[in-house]
Amino acid sequence: xNFSGSYAGADVTFLLKPLPLADFVxxxxxxxxxxxxxxxxxxxxxxxxxxxxxxxxAVFEQACAANGERMARDCLVLAGLIAARRxxxxxxxxxxxxxxxxxxxxxxxLERVHGRGTAHYSVSIVRDRGIxxxxxxxxxxxxxxxxxxxxxxxxxGKGVIARELAAxxxxxxxxxxxxIDSGLHVLSDLAGSAACAASCEDYLIPSSILNATVxxxxxxxxxxxxxxxxxxxxxxxxSDFAAQDRSRAFVDTLEERALALAESAPVAAxxxxxxxxxxxxxxxxxxxxxxxxxxxxxxxxxxxxEATRVLLRRAPRLLVLRDPQAAxxxxxxxxxxxxxxxxxxxxxxxxxxxxxxxxxxDA
Length: 363
Fold this sequence. Notes:
By secondary structure, the chain is of the alpha/beta class. Helix content is about 40%, strand content about 15%. The strands form four sheets. Strands 1, 2, 4, 5, 8, 9, 10 and 11 form an eight-stranded mixed sheet that branches. The chain has a four-stranded mixed sheet with strand order 13-16-14-15, sandwiched between helices. A two-stranded parallel ribbon has the order 3-12.
């Protein structure tokens, strides 16, 4: 099924199969046990999302006010980098769902600032399972040239998805005798694993704070027994959340800010040191595994974006902050308070925040 969620039809086409939430939802604690024991893959299950509290909505508004212009500038920079790396029409393929709002804004900027014809699809990629090959085949069948495809996400954490994308697109290329560039394009590349990024800094990207209500009312993607061999990966549509949906307003505001920046003065990309970012990531992960007695690297989630995801939908063990008063982590402090999660302060932390997932054996 092709749909646009709560976005305008011209902004994005989700290549996902809507599924009933009741068919596969799991309690967070039970989900962690199933994932960590290897009995179920994380992509097979969803826990129900809840609407944010009034306090949390206020923190989101503060984040937009404080960092909205920074995000808009990085979207403008990334659009310019993409325009320089591709000739002719562009086919943006955002990774659902964190990449979807960024993809929407990039599409508008490529069209309005760079005069480039741009299509935008949002597709699923699953760790250890790869990108949705049926979705890629659908995009190619619509007449989009392989060379026009640009993969987009919001940020990298440890670089797992960037590596998954590279491996699965390479398999797809071999199987289909084509050459799609598997490089990932992001706003913030903490892991030094993206092909192209506007920044390597850990800053609060406001869309990372919310779930479905800033992502077109779409859940994260799922891949379970309800997905047939010819289906797209699945999702849930949270239509009941429409009254508190921010998806369109968020991208409209970002676009307005980015266009104002483009009109006022040229916005050039800054040189970023991806090698240093990659080395920093590897060093921190190794140190954290030793410090906290962690055997499974998947239980460590560095950076504000990944830390937020843990506190919103996983079973958090610990939140580590570099600065306990930083405005960019106010939402994390609130979530930790609401969920009774311990907070540790580490002034030497190379990121603003890190979340550790609770081991099922400790539950």
